[in-house]
């Protein structure tokens, strides 16, 4: 019996139909579980945070090769099923938490050396990344199954940059591992997914800037995407656009440049030029 057949059988027996409102789609192709595990480079001493374990197929594999798995499942029915399954199979190195990962306090991860492996619901990707990229105790890495379009936005370069791309590239290095076709899920989503790996930078490699002020500047720059940067910055910093234009030219940028046309390095240059106006 393949994974799709197992999934359909379990769904029928236990009434575990995926909840569309929660963005649930069960992965039913084993090769992509294996690809995620390979990308995560899991060692026997590792602790793995698995988000959205679903029916537990990946959980079982992770438990066999790591010291501990912390599996966080929002859906109580799925969590109850998985808890019973772990007991039946005598898998005792999995801590199952029935909760919303976005509501778990940062203190829970304090002192924890961990990696994340997750098949994320598409509707929580941005807030999930923000939570863990800026956490007090960040993961070593994240291997995520994401909507293809979102993964491509994360690794984007100019002129297709976004706040999401800047956020990930500020705190980490990201690479696309491969495409996961829609037919690898049940039920099939309308779009393909992508397996992406995000490795957090050590603190010594983070840009030496005031993070709060830097992101305030970025948000001002992106406040009206279709407008030229000089207008957005002028409005947000309460400066004449002509002053902004002069500053842009002084550091080598086109006066008509837009936010999405700037790389992380460009934004750091802008911050060095204009941060004094934000104090």
UniProtKB/TrEMBL annotation:
<keyword id="KW-0698">rRNA processing</keyword>
<feature type="binding site">
    <location>
        <position position="73"/>
    </location>
    <ligand>
        <name>S-adenosyl-L-methionine</name>
    </ligand>
</feature>
<keyword id="KW-0808">Transferase</keyword>
<dbReference type="InterPro" id="IPR011530">
    <property type="entry name" value="rRNA_adenine_dimethylase"/>
</dbReference>
<dbReference type="InterPro" id="IPR029063">
    <property type="entry name" value="SAM-dependent_MTases_sf"/>
</dbReference>
<dbReference type="InterPro" id="IPR020596">
    <property type="entry name" value="rRNA_Ade_Mease_Trfase_CS"/>
</dbReference>
<feature type="binding site">
    <location>
        <position position="100"/>
    </location>
    <ligand>
        <name>S-adenosyl-L-methionine</name>
    </ligand>
</feature>
<protein>
    <recommendedName>
        <fullName>Ribosomal RNA small subunit methyltransferase A</fullName>
        <ecNumber>2.1.1.182</ecNumber>
    </recommendedName>
</protein>
<dbReference type="GO" id="GO:0052908">
    <property type="term" value="F:16S rRNA (adenine(1518)-N(6)/adenine(1519)-N(6))-dimethyltransferase activity"/>
</dbReference>
<dbReference type="InterPro" id="IPR020598">
    <property type="entry name" value="rRNA_Ade_methylase_Trfase_N"/>
</dbReference>
<keyword id="KW-0694">RNA-binding</keyword>
<feature type="binding site">
    <location>
        <position position="25"/>
    </location>
    <ligand>
        <name>S-adenosyl-L-methionine</name>
    </ligand>
</feature>
<dbReference type="InterPro" id="IPR023165">
    <property type="entry name" value="rRNA_Ade_diMease-like_C"/>
</dbReference>
<comment type="similarity">
    <text>Belongs to the class I-like SAM-binding methyltransferase superfamily. rRNA adenine N(6)-methyltransferase family. RsmA subfamily.</text>
</comment>
<keyword id="KW-0963">Cytoplasm</keyword>
<feature type="binding site">
    <location>
        <position position="27"/>
    </location>
    <ligand>
        <name>S-adenosyl-L-methionine</name>
    </ligand>
</feature>
<keyword id="KW-0949">S-adenosyl-L-methionine</keyword>
<dbReference type="Pfam" id="PF00398">
    <property type="entry name" value="RrnaAD"/>
</dbReference>
<dbReference type="InterPro" id="IPR001737">
    <property type="entry name" value="KsgA/Erm"/>
</dbReference>
<feature type="domain" description="Ribosomal RNA adenine methylase transferase N-terminal">
    <location>
        <begin position="32"/>
        <end position="202"/>
    </location>
</feature>
<keyword id="KW-0489">Methyltransferase</keyword>
<feature type="binding site">
    <location>
        <position position="52"/>
    </location>
    <ligand>
        <name>S-adenosyl-L-methionine</name>
    </ligand>
</feature>
<comment type="function">
    <text>Specifically dimethylates two adjacent adenosines (A1518 and A1519) in the loop of a conserved hairpin near the 3'-end of 16S rRNA in the 30S particle. May play a critical role in biogenesis of 30S subunits.</text>
</comment>
<dbReference type="GO" id="GO:0003723">
    <property type="term" value="F:RNA binding"/>
</dbReference>
<feature type="binding site">
    <location>
        <position position="119"/>
    </location>
    <ligand>
        <name>S-adenosyl-L-methionine</name>
    </ligand>
</feature>
<dbReference type="GO" id="GO:0005829">
    <property type="term" value="C:cytosol"/>
</dbReference>
